[in-house]
Amino acid sequence: EGKGKRRNPLHDFKKTGELMLIKVNKTLEVKTKLLNTTEQCAKRCSRNKGLSFTCKAFAYDRVTKRCHWLSFNSLTNGVRKKQDHAFDLYEKKDYVRNCIIGKGANYKGTISVTKSGIQCQAWNSMIPHEH
Asked: Pfam families, from UniProt (predicted)?
């Protein structure tokens, strides 16, 4: 079982249809390339292959079949959302989810307080608790 089956790289992404992200902050990076499928875009984003930045999301232009890899996502400062019927936005779940799965090793979200409002302990701190 499982032999010959490949994991779909899109599984690691949250899809929002008909949305594009526009960078207001000029230091944020984008790279584009013609690719036939969203799976190819996702695979390259996940591996950061050929990118000079950590890929946090990509937008796929269904009309031109162009992939736009982004060094940012919808939660990044200096970014605005734009409705665009040609695009689908795919954001890495690790960067946009507000919960920790398992031990939280891949969590890269922005939540830093508990449900009851207590500040979280820094990962590199052994105070007030040991890991």
From this structure: Kringle, PAN_1
State the CB neighbour count (10 A cutoff) for residue 124. 6
- Contact call for residues 64 and 34 (beta carbons, < 8 A): yes
Give the chain's domains with CATH numbers.
Answer: 9-95 (3.50.4.10)
Average pLDDT over residues 3-22: 89
First CA to last CA across the chain, in angstroms? 37
DSSP run (H or E) holding 5: none
- The amino acid occupying position 22 is I
* The two three-digit tokens of residue 116, written as one number: 């009851």
For residues 58 and 129, give the distance between their C-alpha atoms in angstroms, rounded to a whole number: 38
> Which comes out higher in pLDDT, residue 3 or 17?
17
For residue 117, the surrounding DSSP H or E stretch is none
Give the integer Cα–Cα distance in Å for 71 and 75: 12
**Is pTM, for the whole model, over 0.90?**
no
